[in-house]
Design brief:
Elements lengths: L3 E6 L10 E7 L2 E6 L3 E6 L5 E6 L5 E7 L2 E6 L4 E5 L5 E4 L7 E6 L4 E5 L3 E5 L5 E6 L6 E5 L2 E6 L2 E7 L6 E7 L2 E7 L2 E5 L6 E5 L7 E5 L6 E6 L4 E6 L3 E6 L4 E7 L4 E6 L5 E5 L4 E6 L1
Antiparallel strand pairs: 1-28, 2-3, 3-4, 4-5, 6-7, 7-8, 8-9, 10-11, 11-12, 12-13, 14-15, 15-16, 16-17, 18-19, 19-20, 20-21, 22-23, 23-24, 24-25, 26-27, 27-28
Length: 286
């Protein structure tokens, strides 16, 4: 029987002083951003604090790794690029007009979406290479090849980007809400009520609904891929759940210290959560 349990947690002295809002993992380093604007790095194995910087004036809203670059997005409307090994600031991109909420990468560019609905493309060094207007605020984002998935309040739009201009064309739209992730052949997002997850085929023009993942008692706030064909979710019920997408079933669950603002899974299958009160913890699937 598969089980999950919290196996390590940052101490109160070393955790954030405000709610954690973003987390990503690379090898033995766990990067965490919070509403206090600070960026902290923890050891993957012990959850001991390794390094920290005051990265933004306002809340960090998302973190993303591309190569040796760590991108941070913020409510202060900026995107910054850091050396992931040293946390040396490489560049601060010209500010967006509104708060930047979510980022995604197709392996070549980083896409950053804001509250105005603008999505800018950055190269690995943080140079802006284009922009697309999605009309409404971006609450979740996914990029693959020349397709961009954006989520507004109650809908998912899939756009095909032009390789030679800032133009894009809508190729499909589905019902759904944030959070959203794409895991291989599956797209997973919140349903209208926010307490269940919708599983769809990740295919334009034929992305049929495969089923619902039900089990949370309150609204889901965070979602992340966890290996092939699996996702983890949590929300205001403070319950972390591991789901099998092919079987449309819950595999395991465990309690978290509080409501998460973000989840991330490492290549070795561990799950990292950060959220209310600044907690950061490591969960292991056994």
């Amino acid at each position: 029987m598969t089980k999950m349990e919290v196996v390590a947690r940052a101490s109160e002295e070393q955790q954030h002083t405000a709610d954690g809002a973003a987390v990503c993992v690379e090898e033995d380093r766990v990067y965490v951003g919070a509403e206090d604007g600070k960026l902290k790095v923890y050891n993957h194995h012990t959850m001991e604090l390794v390094q920290e910087v005051t990265a933004h004036e306002y809340a960090i809203t998302d973190l993303l790794l591309l190569g040796a670059s760590l991108f941070s997005a913020s409510a202060d409307a900026t995107v910054k690029v850091w050396d992931s090994a040293t946390l040396t600031l490489r560049t601060t991109a010209p500010p967006h007009e509104e708060a930047v909420r979510k980022m995604a990468t197709n392996g070549v560019h980083v896409f950053a979406g804001d509250d105005k609905g603008d999505v800018r493309l950055y190269d690995v060094d943080g140079r802006c290479r284009g922009a697309h207007s999605m009309v409404e605020e971006v609450w979740a984002l996914h990029a693959q090849e020349d397709l961009l998935y954006t989520v507004r309040d109650r809908g998912i739009t899939i756009s095909r980007l032009s390789g030679t201009s800032n133009k894009s064309s809508v190729v499909d739209s589905w019902d759904g809400r944030a959070p959203m992730v794409v895991s291989g052949e599956y797209l997973v997002c919140g349903d209208a009520g926010g307490m269940s997850l919708v599983v769809r085929e990740n295919k334009t023009k034929s992305g049929k609904e495969l089923g619902l993942l039900q089990g949370h008692e309150m609204i889901i706030t965070a979602l992340a891929k966890c290996g092939e064909g699996r996702v983890v979710s949590s929300g205001y019920d403070n319950s972390l759940k591991l789901w099998d997408l092919k079987g449309l079933k819950e595999v395991a669950s465990c309690p978290l210290p509080g409501c998460p603002g973000a989840l991330a899974a490492s290549e070795d299958g561990c799950i990292f959560a950060t959220g209310s009160g600044g907690y950061v913890c490591k969960v292991k699937v056994v």
